[in-house]
Amino acid sequence: MIGSRVSGVWVVSAAVALVLAATLPTGDRAAAQEAPADVLAAFLDALNAGDIDGVMELVGPGIRNTSFGCDFVFGRDCAGADEYRMLTQTAVDLNFREEVLELSVQGAIVTGYMETTSDLVAQAPGIDRLRQTNVFQIEQGLIVREWVEPDLDDAQTAAFMEFLAMPAPAPAAAGDAGLKASDGASVLWAWLATGSVLAGAAVLRLLRRGSRRRGWRR
Q1: Which domains does the chain have, with CATH numbers?
Q2: Which residues contact 94 (CB under 8 A, 6 or more apart)?
Q3: What is the rounded (10 degree) CA torsion for 61, 66, 68, 71?
Q4: 3-state secondary structure of 18
């Protein structure tokens, strides 16, 4: 009698689990089973491959991002999937590539010390990469919060932030295009003419705003 009850409970439990699994989209089922570090690895693989849809499958609908990237694209934190997609599109347009140099995991929080290269970074004289700390909050297989803090103790990163803070070149004179070899920021303005509309707008906003170096909220 007891054995049949146990067997019956097991059958019911298994049936409920199968029903729940069947109601979840395939991507959600897979994501829910992944460890936070694996989610981040898949996220970076998609970003480095320029796979915007792949990136978006790994972020929550209410994703919030605090970074200088959002600061120059929106003038504030990114909020929600639509804005995060725009940020990701900008990163892809600028050929951003990110590599994890150090990684630590504490529950749902994954912290990576990262190295970044991009077409934008390459425009700064003598600078070929940035380094920053990225902190991700990952819940149920999805990134729901991200903070990015540039490492201003790194010489190249600090120099790049200073480079972005340089004033824009003067308006173009006849036959001059307004570019001067001594004006580092003018290199970005020259590049701006060939960049995508969204990427160009992002760079333009950043040059106008400069590097605010605000306190990073966590």
Answers
A1: 31-209 (3.10.450.50)
A2: 118, 119, 120, 195, 199
A3: 70
A4: helix
3-class SS string, 46-114: HHHCCCHHHHHCCEEEEEEEECHHHHHHHCCCEECHHHHHHHHHHHHHCCCEEEEEEEEEECCEEEEEE
Q: What pLDDT is stored for residue 29 in this prediction?
A: 39
Q: Is 162 exposed, middle or buried (0-12, 13-18, 19+ CB in 10 A)?
A: middle
Structure confidence by residue, pLDDT tens digits, 50-84? 999 999 999 999 999 998 778 777 788 889 999 99
114 vs 30, more confident? 114
Number of Cβ within a 10 Å radius of residue 24: 12
Is the Cβ–Cβ distance between 133 and 111 less than 8 Å?
A: yes
